[in-house]
TrEMBL record:
<dbReference type="GO" id="GO:0016857">
    <property type="term" value="F:racemase and epimerase activity, acting on carbohydrates and derivatives"/>
</dbReference>
<dbReference type="GO" id="GO:0019301">
    <property type="term" value="P:rhamnose catabolic process"/>
</dbReference>
<dbReference type="InterPro" id="IPR008000">
    <property type="entry name" value="Rham/fucose_mutarotase"/>
</dbReference>
<protein>
    <submittedName>
        <fullName>L-rhamnose mutarotase</fullName>
    </submittedName>
</protein>
<dbReference type="Pfam" id="PF05336">
    <property type="entry name" value="rhaM"/>
</dbReference>
<dbReference type="InterPro" id="IPR011008">
    <property type="entry name" value="Dimeric_a/b-barrel"/>
</dbReference>
Length: 120
């Protein structure tokens, strides 16, 4: 399943409360994310408010639309909007994958012939 990486900017004056809110996300919101196809979703927060999210999903746009359709999502987004520099938390900037260790190792192993005298 493909992974997506994105960034958002949390207001530096709200970092402590942002961390606290995410230590206990509402169970209905957790289920809405799961049911919408968000897998292995993690958020990383830097001290200056840079938030980096990583999620595994087949289609980010479809997964976002599905979670947006959940009633709990509107309540969660309204609660979280003041934490973001954009004022709404919708300004995700996706990042392009430029290096994948496992993929490159697998490709290198496919291209490297076995030494003479060893089974291939």
């Amino acid at each position: 399943m493909p992974r997506v990486c994105f960034t958002l900017q949390v207001r530096p004056d709200r970092l402590t409360e942002y961390r606290e809110r995410h230590a206990a996300v509402w169970p209905d919101m957790l289920r809405a994310l799961r049911d919408a196809g968000w897998r292995d979703y993690q958020l990383f927060l830097r001290d200056d408010g840079l938030l980096v999210g990583i999620v595994a999903t087949d289609d980010l746009a479809a997964a976002q639309a599905a979670v947006d359709a959940a009633e709990v999502s509107a309540r969660w987004e309204a609660e979280m909007a003041p934490f973001f520099a954009t004022g709404d938390g919708r300004g995700k900037s996706t990042l392009d994958l430029v290096f994948d260790l496992d993929a490159q190792l697998a490709a290198a192993e496919e291209q490297t012939p076995a030494p003479i005298g060893e089974p291939s």
